[in-house]
Known about the structure:
The chain is mainly α. The protein is built from ten helices and three strands. The longest helix has 21 residues.
Amino acid sequence: MRTLSNQLQSDGRLGGCFVFKRGHPTRGNAKVLFVTIAYQLALNVHWLRGPISQVVDHNPSVLARSIDIQLQKLISEPCCMHPNQAPLTILIDGLDECEGQGVHLNILHAIRTCFTPHPLPLRFIIASRPEAHIREMFESSFYHGVYRSFNVWKSFDDIRTYFLDEFARIHREQHQTMSTIPLPWPVPKVLDTLVEKSSGYFIYASTIIKFVD
Length: 213
């Protein structure tokens, strides 16, 4: 996502980005998601600077409103004034790192709803582990025909390589404990399961390795 963000910025197509981090005082808080993105839009996109600034000047309390109101007033309505502009991309990384399943669904509901009355020159790219409730939202009729699913397979290959290297190291270094354990270890079926469960996230793989080690 960082690489994609840099590429979009170089091409002049990045509207804003937000990276959730579990437990962080601000980056784990959905209440600052659309406020942060709106600030980035106003800072980086000249045709949105005036409309977004006017919204905040006329009604500062919008910064403390619900996430759907923030998205509507700070982003959706200003963008409606310029429907013929080339689309901007907004990146939201680590949605599953945000606090609470209900919050995840509120964010996805707000994003889908903001496009309902009129088209907007915006595209959202949302990265997340495929948690059941998130997957069900995208697969529901509410999102039918307006989203595209994409798995970063390269990440899975990288995770597999990491697992192979680290399990080989553990087997080699823990020679007394592992002397009776035959190679390959773990067996391919177990390794496949771990790679699949990682969903391409190194934090999962590194946690498994630390625990086994």
